[in-house]
Amino acid sequence: MIPIHGQPILTAAQMRAAEEAAAPTPDAMYALMERAGAGVAEAVRRLSAGAEALILCGPGNNGGDGYVAARILREQGHPVRLAAASEPKSDLARRARAGWDGPVERLADADPAPVLVDALFGTGLARSLDEGLTAPLHRLADAARLRLAVDLPSGVATDDGAVPSEPPRFDVTLALGALKPAHLLQPAARYMGELRLLDIGVPAPSRTRALARPTLPEPGPDSHKFTRGLVCVVSGEMPGAAELAATAAAHAGAGYVLLLGAEASAPHAIVRRPWSLEALSVRKPGAVVIGPGLGREDKSIWIPRLSSVLATPYPVVLDGDALRHLSNPHSFRGPTILTPHAGEFDHLFGLGQGSKIDRARAAAERSGATIVFKGADTVIASPHGDAIVAPEASAWLSTAGTGDVLAGACGAMLAAGLDPLAAAEAAVWLHGRAARRLGPAFLADDLAEGLSACR
């Protein structure tokens, strides 16, 4: 079982194409099923502590994987039972069923077991399941002490993370060959439990991948405050938000943070100046962050500050209120990161079509900026077609100011010289890690300071 960090993400159609390219004959395809079933069996053997497993098999190839896993477990002497929703309907599943010489229980009548393995429906499902399937699945899952899903929990839609039929919550989901969008996109992601990837021998190239731990910029012996990156944060009507962004930039590693338009207060390491275009350009910033607390009411504040920033060639992070004031589409002069939450994204780009990944990628292409589409399933997309999906974030990030912290961290990474996609990935990773380390009920102030400990 392989950790998911940095692994490619494929849609159902992309996964089918990858499998067909790797296994062009029926025998080769069945060899893939044997490898998948063997991987599932090994995971059950490792995780179950010898307890009896009940494998639920559907009519398609996901059920075929289950038949293979059950056969291998039985051959190894592991206690295993098998229940089926119906007879196999695909040639591969029928071939796998023929290799199982034990009894097949009816799904509706099956008794529970300590370990439940869901191999009913995997990749490709895009419809709701009928009550004759969901009721026994929930009944058996509720009675099990360990619940494993093969490829995907039955009831979730592969490509967009929708949940046509609510599945049980699983302890472990075993992704076959590659991650799928539903593994990381909400609401489906909340049902996955721990995600692990099983290598079945299928090359899976993709321009979409899971977030991985980045190589963060580090100072060297010859570094000084300006070589480490100068971040300028522009304040507005609500200076507390800009203070948070500036504090976050400093704790994320910026060597010099200049806060324009806010009065002096702690931390004293942040340099404060009144707002002016001249103050913005005294030293060439490595990144300018604008939007946190900029405001929407006082046009004498936000219009000159935002228009001045957008007229510069400096790398820019646009967050919060700045996103509400952008003309759409907007042409940016320098490297740009936009960090919208769902409401800001819809305001900028409309509701759109497809998954959150599709929408973020389309927005990046349209705007020419790197998009950080925030949420429990944050998606980062570049104008060049690359996309990165972050695993489920701490629910405690749902508090005021955490987005300002992320904007500051993005600014620090841009100022350190990373390209916008790498800067956004590093900031999202650092932000999520700090939240997990803090645990429950933290303040955004704690989160900003906590970035230092996560580098």
Task: Write up what this structure looks like.
This protein is 37% helix and 15% strand. It is α/β, with parallel strands linked by helices and 455 residues long. It folds into two domains: 12-204, 3-Layer(aba) Sandwich (Rossmann fold), CATH 3.40.50.10260; 230-454, Ribokinase (UDP-N-acetylmuramoyl-L-alanine:D-glutamate ligase), CATH 3.40.1190.20. The strands form two sheets. A ten-stranded mixed sheet has the order 8-17-16-15-14-13-12-9-10-11, sandwiched between helices. The chain has a seven-stranded parallel sheet with strand order 3-2-1-4-5-6-7, with helices on both faces. Helix 9 (299-310) links the parallel strand 12 (287-290) and strand 13. The mean pLDDT is 94. This is Bifunctional NAD(P)H-hydrate repair enzyme. Residues 208-455 form the YjeF C-terminal domain. It comes from Sphingomonas lenta.
Topology:
Layout: H1 12-22, H2 26-47, E1 53-57, H3 61-75, E2 80-84, H4 91-98, E3 105-106, E4 115-119, H5 131-143, E5 146-150, E6 172-176, H6 181-184, E7 194-198, E8 208-210, E9 230-234, H7 239-252, E10 256-260, E11 271-273, H8 277-281, E12 287-290, H9 299-310, E13 316-318, H10 321-325, E14 336-338, H11 342-349, H12 356-367, E15 370-373, E16 379-381, E17 387-389, H13 402-415, H14 420-438, H15 444-450
Parallel strand pairs: 1-2, 1-4, 2-3, 4-5, 5-6, 6-7, 8-17, 9-10, 9-12, 10-11, 12-13, 13-14, 14-15
Antiparallel strand pairs: 15-16, 16-17
Give a short synopsis of this structure.
It contains 15 helices and 17 strands. It has 455 residues and is of the alpha/beta class. It has two domains: 12-204, 3-Layer(aba) Sandwich (Rossmann fold); 230-454, UDP-N-acetylmuramoyl-L-alanine:D-glutamate ligase.
